[in-house]
What we know:
Blueprint: H1 6-9, H2 27-46, H3 55-66, E1 70-71, H4 72-79, H5 83-95, E2 99-103, E3 111-115, H6 117-137, H7 143-160
Antiparallel strand pairs: 1-3, 2-3
Helix pairs in contact: 2-6, 3-6, 4-5
Amino acid sequence: MARRNKAAESAPGDFAAVGFGPLANIAGFTMRLANLLLFRDYYDHFASSPGALSLGAISVMAVIAANPGIRQGAAAEALLIKRSNMTKLVNRLERQGLVRRRASGRDRRAVGLYLTAAGRRRLAMLLPAVAEQDAQSTASLSARERRVLVELLGKLVKAKRGGA
């Protein structure tokens, strides 16, 4: 008797019927799906908000806030953003009055990134909303499971960056 293919008979969007075979046991594959779904939740929630910023822009602002004067290249490397994309993103944030570039006191050729007062206010407003959206997106996990997930992902990131 031929095996039924539930996926072939399923309606569009019925992902429960789609099997991933051996991919289901590949950490990178599962993380990629989770990443895409979490980002979709974010954009569904925030994209229509007035003055919405991308998660990339919020991430850059958070890194600048945590590291005032950071060089653009260092921030790009930390966030795994291509330098050309980082330049466009910082230019956009600067035009919006959220970030400013300032020459270093020691090396006038070096330029550091700083949040403006408006950037600090905007980030302070956005981060709790992003954290709340993240909590909603991971609500299927217990608090302990979420902490373990974040810890394990952090451990993986550190190891992949050579900080084992």
